[in-house]
Design goal:
Domain BPL/LPL catalytic: 1-197
Shape: globular
Distance between the termini: 45 Å
CATH superfamily of the largest domain: Bira Bifunctional Protein, Domain 2
Helix content: 25-40%
CATH class of the largest domain: Alpha Beta
CATH topology of the largest domain: BirA Bifunctional Protein, domain 2
Largest sheet: 7 strands, mixed
Number of helices: 7
Catalytic activity: biotin + L-lysyl-[protein] + ATP = N(6)-biotinyl-L-lysyl-[protein] + AMP + diphosphate + H(+)
GO cellular component, one term: cytoplasm
Structural class: alpha+beta
Number of strands: 14
InterPro entries: aa-tRNA-synth_II/BPL/LPL, Biotin_CoA_COase_ligase, BPL_C, BPL_LPL_catalytic, Transcriptional_repressor_C
Strand order of the largest sheet: 1-2-5-9-8-7-6
Keywords: ATP-binding, Biotin, Ligase, Nucleotide-binding
Length: 270
């Protein structure tokens, strides 16, 4: 089976660049933008050899896993572009829910899974990391912004020894292929990109994201450089910042950092 766009993505005019193996789908997408690509385009592979996560961490996708990135070139500011990641996370969580429901229909008695969004860029199942998202933006020659949203999904295998324990769809009993998941993702992205609407619909995206958010109301610790902020995960604001309510009742906006919930948070994210 080969990669193909879903029918909604095809109708919406998306293009597809599929690779047997590639270094990084995000890097490939941004390189195309620098050389003049302006059409919305997906870049996808089942084997990624030089992928990157946040803070330049290595993210390798062994053959059979899914690495996919979408390129959108828009006339928006970097601050607005940053909110696109929430819509993209929602699209992928929705695609995962849809394909796992289909898998459950094929496998009677399979447990229903919840795909939860961990701020700012992970999808968790049963507290374990299934996907990691990376959003990048760069100004291009016509004055617009090239925004690349990439996500790596553990379809058949998950790395070991990660800060947050990782899992895969196969380990969860969801037996779908990367190609099937990608087609569902490309269609779900059309839906959520439409809601997001170049940032104009972020209010609705924020509500939908909070409905799927991991850890709301729970203890949280965020490491930002050399400092650690501790409190309760209250919400996200209208710019996408995480709002922490401290023990003193102060609401602190967090723009970036390493987020720890539960026991890790109570120990000061050590």
């Amino acid at each position: 089976m080969t990669f193909s766009l879903g029918p909604k993505a095809t109708s919406a005019g998306y293009r597809l660049a599929a690779f047997d193996k590639v270094g990084s789908t995000n890097a490939e997408a941004m390189a195309r933008a620098r050389t003049g690509e302006r059409d919305p385009t997906w870049f996808v592979t089942t084997e990624q050899t030089a992928g990157r996560g946040r803070r330049q961490r290595v993210w390798i996708a062994p053959r059979g896993n899914l690495a996919s990135s979408v390129l959108e070139v828009m006339d928006i500011s970097p601050a607005v572009a940053a909110t696109m990641g929430f819509a993209f996370g929602l699209a992928h969580a929705t695609a995962l829910q849809r394909v796992s429901v289909e898998a459950n229909l094929r496998l009677a008695g399979a447990d229903q899974l919840q795909y939860l969004l961990k701020w700012p860029n992970d999808i968790l199942v049963r507290g374990q990391k299934l996907c990691g998202l990376l959003l990048e933006a760069e100004a291009v020659t016509d004055g617009r912004l090239a925004v690349v949203a990439g996500i790596g999904t553990n379809v058949i295998a998950a790395p070991e020894g990660t800060p947050t324990p990782a899992t895969s769809l196969a380990a969860l009993g969801v037996h779908v292929g990367a190609e099937e998941l990608f087609a569902a993702l490309s269609d779900a992205w059309v839906e959520f990109r439409g809601i997001w609407d170049n940032g104009r619909g972020f209010g609705e995206i924020r509500k939908l994201w909070l409905d799927r958010a991991f850890g709301v109301g729970e203890p949280v610790a965020i490491k930002t450089g050399t400092a650690t902020v501790e409190g309760t995960f209250d919400t996200i604001d209208d710019t996408g910042c995480l709002i922490v309510r401290t023990a003193e009742g102060k609401r602190m906006p967090i723009t970036a950092g390493e987020v720890y919930f539960g026991t890790a948070a109570s120990l000061g994210a050590t």
